Amino acid sequence: MSLSLCCKQFKPHPLVLAMAAIAVIISPLTSAETIPQQAEQNQSTHLSQNEDLTQLPTISVQASSQNVAHVGKQAQNIKDIPQSVTVMSRQRIDEQGLKTLDDVMQQTTGVTREQLWLNNNYSARGLKIENIRYDGGSASSLQDRSNSADLAQYESVEVLRGADGLFGAGEAGGVINLTSKRPKTETAINATISAGSWNNYRGEVDITGALTQDQNIQGRLVTVFQDQDFFYEPTHNRREMIYGALNFDLLPTTTLFTGISYQKDKTDAFNASLPRWEDGADMHLPRSTTMGAPWGWVERENISLFANLQHEINDDWKTQFNVRHNTGDDAINGAEMEGAVSYDTHQSQWWRYQDDTSFRETTLDLNLQGSFNLFEQKHDVILGIDHSNYKKDYKQNWTYYADGDAFDRVAPPEWAYPPATWETDNTNENNKSALYGSLKIHPIDELALILGGRYTFKDELTIDNHNKNIKNTYNEDKTFVPYYGLTYEFLPSTTAYASYAEIYKNQRNYLISADGPGLDPLTGRNIEFGLKHQINSNLLASIAYFNIKKEKEKVYNSWTSLPNSNSSCCYVGTGTMESKGVDIEFNGYITPEWNVSVGYTYNKNEKKDNTETPYNTYTPKNLLKIWTTYQLDQLIDGLDIGGGVVAQSKTYAVGSVRAFNPATQEFDGAWTSIELVQPNYAVWSARIAYDINPQLNIALNLNNIFDKTYYSTIGYPGYGNFYGEPRNFLLTLKASY
């Protein structure tokens, strides 16, 4: 499809006119004052014009933001962290037109995505990423609800790959940290409008500045409105987001950062996954196909309240307190077609799906950070305590309705909502509390030894089945998880590192037999060592080898009905696996005009049993992600170009189908296992941007340039197969004051 054909998907929208008016108004009001200033600045000024208003207009500050991460309790240079870390900066987010956390994860080094119809899963090194933190606070369990979080409220996204044993136990895939936009003392306004393929219209306004004459109180307000269709028809989504934050300089040594965010999404005719033929073969359905009822809908609403209080005790010591309260509600009413499709009859199955879910989560984190001198060397300490309480009430109906023709989909009539009864009506509550601490010792200036650990003294899961009137509580024993790290700058700007972290996860609600007991916790360890080299002040290269082992993981043994329990039965804790491989990353400015991000991961993960089969078949052995931009000021002042690629080797899923029976000439033979394969592929993207004047920038992004048809996720014969996006464009106009 040519670009001209692609652009036919664009239609005028009132939002464009409204937001364009803001851009036009702001630009002339500010240009007279700032153009003379721009003429006096060097070529680095151009770098800052397309960035978020919180960054200073110098190359060094801009580039260094890619090399500083908040994956712990404070900002750290990535070179000093003995694990693999990727920072997706505001500049990168804006350049690629990334709007949600899901968009960012698809571009992040070493991360793979398993698409689901409502929430998505992310993995690194073959292991699931389960934890997410906000501004370095306590680990949150909301990761599966956060992939649609709008990024307009965040300054950056940081991903640490590997076990996060010190600040949050769980799987060894890694942890995501979202860094919120902070208020500034200088007044600044950004207004952005965009329009793209499939009637994708969006407007953003970002305002910050001091609210009092003495500038001791600063505020920030970010609003988003988005209205869009999708390449699968007739799905449509409408989004509203507002973020407000205040920063109080209470004392010269004490600050309070607090705020609220609200996001609401209403999706009509939500997308359901695609089935395959009854023998597992690809049906080659059009990419515009969705198997959901056109009347189906999803409503999601999320509110977050947060505060961070920080007090500097003296030049060497400070304490900070983080609190966050998240609430949300889901309402879903729909029908979707699932089930492998018959060659003869084209029959699949319509299923009814309804959902009413509400949740709340409160996380608390209090820590003390500081340094002391001993033997003429400076050493660092972190001591803290954190707590999380997560409660979810969920009601669901999932029932078979009738068979239907997969090529002539006549949806069932719309169900009444809410229904008179719910098949599932449960309340789950999880309470976790832990102490953590680390000591970073410097025997010499170039060497740092890190000794730390996490002591979990409460890990409690309660499941309340309201239909059965059964309530069960599962408590895990108190557990200590150690963490060790080492960094050694053996050459100027070159650091060797190693780290060891243990893995721990509660499995008490998975029973060995109907009478119990529950399984022991999943355990394991994560080892990583590598090199990080600061090529120049703005360019960092790294290479890492990792080896992860898990033991005692639950393995399904047999199904047993437990009418008087909420536990799952029956399992054995015999699962073992190993994941090993290499991460290579290259981030920053090669020259003042040329910015590049290259990430490559090789991963081999397998079950350590007699089969030695892959543990996670969704993770490719080879994964390459590249993004680069270049300023062409010497050719045309204010012109930027960019491009990138996401390329990976094959992935597959294992499913079961009935073999063809020659006697009946039907696929009703014995069940047999098959592999559903997505071959290796590459998806290319490009960007061109131009500064109309110092306050106004226009950019065009083109994604999937060669219109590659591929499955972003391979599922099973009956469901779980999702196409990647066809070729599409996004046109963005940004005005800054």
UniProtKB/TrEMBL annotation:
Coiled coil: none annotated. Residues 78-175 form the TonB-dependent receptor plug domain. SUPFAM superfamilies: Porins (SSF56935). The keyword RNA-binding does not apply. GO terms for molecular function: siderophore uptake transmembrane transporter activity; signaling receptor activity. One of its GO terms (cellular component) is cell outer membrane. It is a multi-pass membrane protein. Residues 293-705 form the TonB-dependent receptor-like beta-barrel domain. One of its GO terms (biological process) is siderophore transport. Residues 1-32 form the signal peptide. PROSITE patterns: TONB_DEPENDENT_REC_3. Its main location: membrane. It holds the Pfam family Plug. Keywords: Cell outer membrane, Membrane, Receptor, Signal, TonB box, Transmembrane, Transmembrane beta strand, Transport. It is found in: Cell outer membrane. InterPro entries: Beta-barrel_TonB, Beta-barrel_TonB_sf, Plug_dom, Plug_dom_sf, TonB-dep_rcpt-like, TonB_sidphr_rcpt. Belongs to the TonB-dependent receptor family. This is TonB-dependent siderophore receptor. It comes from Acinetobacter ursingii. The lineage of its organism: Bacteria, Pseudomonadati, Pseudomonadota, Gammaproteobacteria, Moraxellales.
